[in-house]
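From the pipeline queue, job 12 of 40. The input is one protein chain; the requested action is below.

Action: predict structure.
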Amino acid sequence: MPRLMRTACLLVPAAFALAACQSTAANNPAPSSPGRDTCGASAYSDRIGQKHAQFDFSAPNRPVRVLGPDTQMTMDYRIDRLNVDTDAAGRITRIWCG
């Protein structure tokens, strides 16, 4: 088999695989797009750096998830869920939707 043909046989499937990944990423924007505050996370931004135990983040019809540094979490994206990230000392490090 000529060298050019062998190279083409290896590169064409790789190009198709990369193209498939590219189109999937373009159709599914990142969940943490700037400007998306559907769960009201920005209302709690003043609590960052404080102990999470002193606050009640619950609200009717909105799920809340408090995540420590080693907490396992599901990777499902829920636009209405408020997530509260904490450090090992229990201080809030980030509040976000998803």
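Job complete. Helices lie at 3-27.
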